[in-house]
């Protein structure tokens, strides 16, 4: 992205070593000035505006659309419907691989959920397209919608999440419960939630013959390109996707969904570039969401407060036409040592857009239930919640028995508790009040998220002027990839960061895998690191084999790259610059590629997870039931921290999301129509500034030699886990009222206070 | 969106004439109207932009002690007027507890009075709604209605009026000055908003072409400045409509309440003046028992319209708290989180 003018001299720049430095984001100034070009900011010449018409029923069939009225509206160019659309090369219902989800591409008049696209109006202006869509005035044949966790007969899905077994067990749970001194059983419910990235899904698509140019925010440039290629029957190299910046993705922009596909179809239909941007309310349907869950937890403890059994069952939903099952119960695999553990899932089908990965899918929903239940169990035993967690600390991964590749959770507990002042917490609830008479409660939760790796490739080059290039089709969703990955690139190339041209965000670069699973920095970083090492090795080869070089005879292993020079490892007085080596060799540049991938041997041998401990303070009005979080401390151990500044922001964001999970977020579905009734940011509540208390993040030192060469575990999602439970537990501690339906509503506290 | 005419009259008379035509509506800041138009809830043929009319953006202190607030005064300008805050603290607090800073910078006094309900079924054009489409039915009645009305509702409509600003205004006997086809008239704010009855499509008693030009706080309204406040319970600390709110204002002399004013928000299709509660507070000591009695009176006629019985109990508790806070005396400075139960929480500088 040479047109990007990223900050070349970021604040706090220190030369020498890059990884570990708290650089401010290199795209920050562009964004503050409004100069960062997001997909919808592109306006190629001749561009038309496309607006989707969406269904207002959740189940049935479109029987008529007033296409004539829409076409007659001034400015409307065309109306794309199931009867009038360019053909696709394959049926969008066919799942060609596990990362393909079924989408609506106007291939049928069937309606399967509310807000399903049923037509696209293309016009000279956004206003004309919008009005054209309104004039379609669809008629439907409506069938009763399937809604909610009890919509129909439940079934056991074949897998949950991405290929996780639906059921897991170790030991005899029933025997463990039977022998327990103390037992709890509790049912928790979590609502449907929507990603609500600030930037709506958007696409600007332009065809040039069989070549396709796409501006579209995506967390998966290459998966998207592959899907577009198969849908439109063109070779991947004919498709150029630009996605330099995402205004948030959170999982909803990972895989190709219906709306951008419709944008590409619309451009094909009219033979001109087309822009299609979702309205906020249209994001509540075709682009995924977090499915609701109902989770039953049963636990037992012996006389010492040690778990004898842990049983976690989660009910969730999927759509009537595709499969994604929130793996909520899997949260119980990792954290607490119990001799008997069972996790299981079942599901019902409802008339909803297919649920999808949403920031910490499974971990977030499962964590709030598990951490609440652990809190209930600790209370039943009369043990402090932190002491209880330490008593049941897992020295090996409970479900598999594997050792952890690293686990600094004890240090997280210790440092977080110390910073928070947890030792002063009274065991009993309803004990603390502030000067104004508000109830005060302290709660905690354990955070965990797997350290995942996908596949990535990077290309590195050293140029004759001594500068470096690192190319990788990586994704900056706002998390700071432009900065953190450039830091890894600079270290890999042995250059200061301002001497590296870091290219990312387009599909003509090497495949960086998907920005998901909190694995992007680890995966792309590993590829960058390897590519850097490979190009330095080539350079070193050149020098070591050249008798005119002071490095002649040094051999690859005997060379260090630093600040644009190679030095003999055994004698740093002998060295020369990259520019000198290339000049003498008469080369414009040297290049090399590197890959990043999970290490199967490590995966076989170790359980690999990031961990953390979150402590929260809430205040609750004792008569009115309104809750406010007043303090949160999170201590996280996530392997090597590439950029502490960005990592802190990521963890803050996760903790705020956790608070949101416990107290605010909920899509309200009309029980009859299946429509989401609060599909806007005024009434779908997420925390505003005034809800966010002082947050304190501690990153706990952790060295992990097994996860990957750089020791990175990822921090994108872990912040939600633990946090939601900590807030919920703090509400209980403040009030003595245990609310098991999230978000915690005023009326549930009001009626019991 | 639907094409519409846009006219920008230069005098009030021109504006009234332009807006009296069928299909015409007034546009001020548009913080509500434009959303309604984008969502196809409102499809006017003509927008009459009143923001360029002269003289409607002034705050005037009248010789008789009344305060006259022009209809185009921005919410934020009014809420940050130091003299206004001193004289009508509950009103300032209500203003600052509404919407967001950005919206308050734009939204006008007149527009605030005429904002439409936030009932989700009113906004959802696929739902039946007697307010949006007269006679179509009410899908809120058996729908997701935990935030709906508990007072003054009818079988045809259970929506609430969302304004915070109107709640203390109605308590303080604010008067609305209206310019209409037949000249100028004025009504007390309590008579501006209608209860739904069988005709919920009409939010107010205004006639076509009627333009609110000013809101007037009568001289007596100042008499409550020492004991007044607004309390709003909501589902996040800021930028949320009231679940229930209350404005309480007292005149206390020699340890007794001489006069009480009480109004509730979020409970009915209009800001709900609780006169029966005011009556029991006259000439009694400001005690917890008296406030409890007032709260029971205030909600005496309340009944759930759906999954919202909790709002009745919540409203009672809010009334007691608001009266208690008012009796304790208006704080010297507006709290950093105006109207919030967390007003006292230190370190909160944002609303």
Automatic annotation (TrEMBL), chain A:
Q: Which domain of life is it from?
A: Bacteria
Cross-referenced Gene3D superfamilies: Aldehyde oxidase/xanthine dehydrogenase, a/b hammerhead, Aldehyde oxidase/xanthine dehydrogenase, molybdopterin binding domain
- Domain (Aldehyde oxidase/xanthine dehydrogenase a/b hammerhead): residue spans on this chain: 33-144
Could you tell me one molecular function GO term of this UniProt entry?
A: iron ion binding
Protein name, UniProt field: Xanthine dehydrogenase family protein molybdopterin-binding subunit
The segment annotated Disordered runs over: 1-20
UniProtKB/TrEMBL annotation, chain B:
Enumerate the GO terms in the molecular function aspect. Answer: FAD binding; oxidoreductase activity
Annotated Pfam families? CO_deh_flav_C (PF03450), FAD_binding_5 (PF00941)
The entry's protein name is Xanthine dehydrogenase family protein subunit M
Q: Does the keyword Flavoprotein apply?
A: yes
PANTHER family linked to this entry: XANTHINE DEHYDROGENASE FAD-BINDING SUBUNIT XDHB-RELATED (PTHR42659:SF9), XANTHINE DEHYDROGENASE SUBUNIT C-RELATED (PTHR42659)
Q: Where is the FAD-binding PCMH-type domain?
A: 1-222
Q: Quick check: keyword Flavoprotein in the entry? A: yes
Q: Which UniProt keywords apply?
A: FAD, Flavoprotein
Check the record and name the InterPro entries matching this protein: CO_DH_flav_C (IPR005107), CO_DH_flav_C_dom_sf (IPR036683), Diverse_Substr_Oxidored (IPR051312), FAD-bd_PCMH (IPR016166), FAD-bd_PCMH-like_sf (IPR036318), FAD-bd_PCMH_sub1 (IPR016167), FAD-bd_PCMH_sub2 (IPR016169), Mopterin_DH_FAD-bd (IPR002346)
